[in-house]
Amino acid sequence: MTREQQLKFCKKCTNRRLDMKVGLLCNLTGEMAHFENECKSFNLDEAVVEKIDDTEAVEHNEVLNKLSDKNLEKFKTEQELPKAIITGIVVGVLAALLWGAITVATGYQIGFMAIAVGALVGLSIRFVGKGVDKIFGISGGIIAVLSCVLGNFFSIIGFIANTEGLGYFETLNVFNYSQLIPIMIETFSGIDLLFYGIAAYEGYKFSFRTFTEKDLYELEK
């Protein structure tokens, strides 16, 4: 066993003692842990268990480090990547439509909408996908950014439709798509890049299956 694996037991044992120079020691032997697989002197400290956080999600990289290979493989078999991507795309399109509608209704492009789009896409992927692999986060980030771009496109269509007195579907049909990129560039600002970056981060972060400290303890005890 590695030192880190041994410390998972030591931190919850009543026989632990902290030495400021070397770290946790066994109070019975006065030495660092040397056991393999299990410690015969282990005595669970119930007070420590009660203090374990069961509300806040642990960072995904930390989850991967704390899960055993057996549990990690188990959760990988429960993943649903195709369903997660489809759901993320559907939610992203709906969020983009909402973004466009709010922008046209208010007359302002609200950058904070990008953050909401990223969170919605990520949470939908998490709920359906139950993912622990990196591809879930990457997919969430990409879909979130593309949804933001689509939201800006819908805003442009909405403004053109209102200006020209056309219906939205009619505008989509007659729009000169060769002008799309120049128009997107003209309406793009530096702050958009910041919000797109946040949306990508939110889409990535929220796309993973979550575990609390208590969940991890129950799995690995």
Automatic annotation (TrEMBL):
- Name the domain of life: Bacteria
Q: Per the UniProt record, which residue ranges are transmembrane?
A: 84-102, 108-128, 135-160, 180-201
Which key words are in the record? Membrane, Transmembrane, Transmembrane helix
In its UniProt entry, what is this protein called?
Uncharacterized protein
- Which organism is this protein's natural source? Imtechella halotolerans K1
**What taxonomic lineage is listed for the species of origin?**
Bacteria, Pseudomonadati, Bacteroidota, Flavobacteriia, Flavobacteriales
